[in-house]
Amino acid sequence: MTAFLDTGVLYGALDLSDEHHMDALSLVFHGLKGRWGGVYTSNYVELEATLLLGSRLGRAAARALPAFLGRSGFKELHVDEGTHKKAVELFSKDEKLSVTDASSVLLAGVVGARTMLTFDGRSFAGKPFEVLGRRYWEGMDDEERGEVSAWIRKAEAKEDRQGPEI
Q: Disulfide: which of 22, 53, 81, 129 matches 137 by Cβ 3.0-4.6 Å?
């Protein structure tokens, strides 16, 4: 059992004002705790997320993402030339997908991911994944919310000492 992590979740975890901030942090927390077994993302997702973070929140937020991914245990897949070509083909046929989303669909298929962690239900609708993201926090019980909240407080205390961190 594996999951694939999309751009919006990574962005939302670092943007305190994002409407999906608590959903994103909860998904990341459960990914770190092994809820879906392995968690994958890609270099295209990382690129897209760092560009968004940098343009909206500044360089410190953008730099926090690769640092987090490096120590998270999440596996980052690299889009090679063949996958890129297939992603561009899929992008040209499916108007709901960006090239990044198309590459995520392809890579998720390669690793057998059954779950897409995303807030982009439009792009991934009709794909062979369970889509988790929107209202994820609301669907958790009080005990799980307490665990996530404790993890956030611990991360905030560490951030006060060392700088931005998920």
A: 22
* Domain boundaries, position 57: 2-162
- Residue identified by tokens 């000492």 is 161
Following CA atoms 5, 130, 34, 163 in sequence, which dihedral angle do they give, to the nearest 10 degrees? 30
Whether residue 121 contacts residue 133, with contact meaning beta carbons closer than 8 Å, is answered with: yes
Q: For 34, which DSSP code?
A: T
Give the tens place of pLDDT for each residue, 32-84: 999 999 999 999 999 999 999 999 999 999 999 999 999 999 999 999 999 99
Could you give the CA distance from residue 47 to residue 30 in angstroms, rounded to a whole number?
23
> Residue 13: helix, strand or coil by DSSP?
helix
Look at the chain and report how many structural domains it folds into.
1
- CA separation for the pair 23, 133 (Å, rounded): 6
CATH code assigned at 137: 3.40.50.1010
